């Protein structure tokens, strides 16, 4: 009986350690990818102010989105949501000066950015 319990505990520990190592490796890998491919256009797109819908503003937003999608497409699929989540958390921590409607738009648009870019999962959990 003690051997079965010891075996079960050992299997559980191996599974937990494997999960932790995999998660740590993913974060390191994503941080490396993000350093090689800065995401400034995605940050600019997600940070933009809502402005009057003039033709010029729409073209600028479309251009930012296109460039953002190109940058996002250079990251591994698993790193896309990681990067988006990191940016949203940064804004939530240090986003003094963000009015409520701008923050609401960020929280609405950020999770679906890979889908908007036709790059991946329907939603990134924040």
Low-confidence stretches: 5-25
Shape: globular
How do the helices and strands follow one another from N- to C-terminus? HHHHHH
Q: In DSSP terms, counting alpha (H) and pi (I) runs of 4 or more, how many helices? A: 6
End-to-end Cα distance, whole Å, is: 44 Å
Total beta strands: 0
The fraction of residues assigned to DSSP E strands is under 5%
What value does the Rg take, in angstroms? 19 Å
| Overall average pLDDT | 78
What oligomeric state do these chains adopt? single chain
> Which structural class matches the secondary elements?
mainly alpha
Helix amount: over 70%
Please summarize the sheet with the most strands. none
Family: Belongs to the 2S seed storage albumins family.
Signal peptide: 1-23
Domain Bifunctional inhibitor/plant lipid transfer protein/seed storage helical: 42-121
Pfam family, one: Tryp_alpha_amyl
Q: What are its keywords?
A:
75% helix; Napin/2SS/CON; seed storage protein; single chain; nutrient reservoir activity; signal; 0% strand; mainly alpha; 126 residues
């Amino acid at each position: 009986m003690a051997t079965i319990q010891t075996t079960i505990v050992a299997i559980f520990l191996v599974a937990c350690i494997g999960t932790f190592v995999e998660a740590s490796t993913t974060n390191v890998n994503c941080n490396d990818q993000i350093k090689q491919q800065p995401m400034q256009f995605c940050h600019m797109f997600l940070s933009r102010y809502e402005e009057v819908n003039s033709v010029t503003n729409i073209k600028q937003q479309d251009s930012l989105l296109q460039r953002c999608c190109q940058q996002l497409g250079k990251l591994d699929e698993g790193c896309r949501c990681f990067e988006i989540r990191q940016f949203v958390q940064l804004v939530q921590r240090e986003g003094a000066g963000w009015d409520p409607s701008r923050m609401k738009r960020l929280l609405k648009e950020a999770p679906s950015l890979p889908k908007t870019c036709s790059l991946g999962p329907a939603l990134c959990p924040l």
